[in-house]
Amino acid sequence: MIKRSLIYLLLAIGVVIAVAPFVVTILSSLKTSIELVTGVFALPKDAQWQNYRTAWVDGHFDRLFLNSLVVAIGVVVPSIFLSAMTGYAFARFRFRGSNALFAYLLFGLIVPLQALVIPLFYLMRSLHLLDSLWALILPQIGLSLSFGTLLMREAFRTIPREIVEASIVDGASSWKTLWGIMFPLSRPIVGTLALMFFIWTWNEFLLPLIVNIDPKYQTLPVGLLYFQQRWTSNVPVIAAGSTIIFLPLTIVFLLFQRQLIRGITSGAVKG
Question: What pTM was estimated for this model as a whole?
Fold first, then answer.
């Protein structure tokens, strides 16, 4: 009983630590600048809903929200498609240099974006893609392939070989085996991967800041800089903008949390 109580206590402390920043942000978004100094957890006297209107209209969050959504979908769908194909190739085929090629592909997990952003800037400039959504979509697809290939490779390797051999005996091609059999059987992993790609792309700040100078092609995280001045900051409006950013992610996570847990647990056990 004591051990269980300690476990529940630790879990409760973890929940408080995880939820507290979101609560503080939401409360701050409903306060005035003067009310912020009364305490981070103090309730506002009158909810300042105009902070959200200021962020949405004056900060052009309506356009930035659409840009973020287009970029996220434009990254997630091709990344899943390409990761499935490369993961299938490395999981089911053996060819000369496959291990070396797979190890080389995994270098993408080691090199941080901060080391690549300047070369990416010059590459996008040479391709005349600066100040466009393509400058955000194409690099992030490439950056996603290392992790996506690793996860899909392990997911496909957990599928019994007998299933693949039976499909080959029935005359199925490699393409049909991948998309008709192996991909549907890996749906929990695919859902987990899609959710992770969406979160990473939605929260990306550095790449949009560097490759897109035109505000028309920036995304939500960069839009928060609109309310950040040199000496002062409109903290309530920044908190409202932050709430607009993380609220869709929270909704998506709550809707697909069961599938996410299934994907993580199924990927943790190798057949």
Answer: 0.84
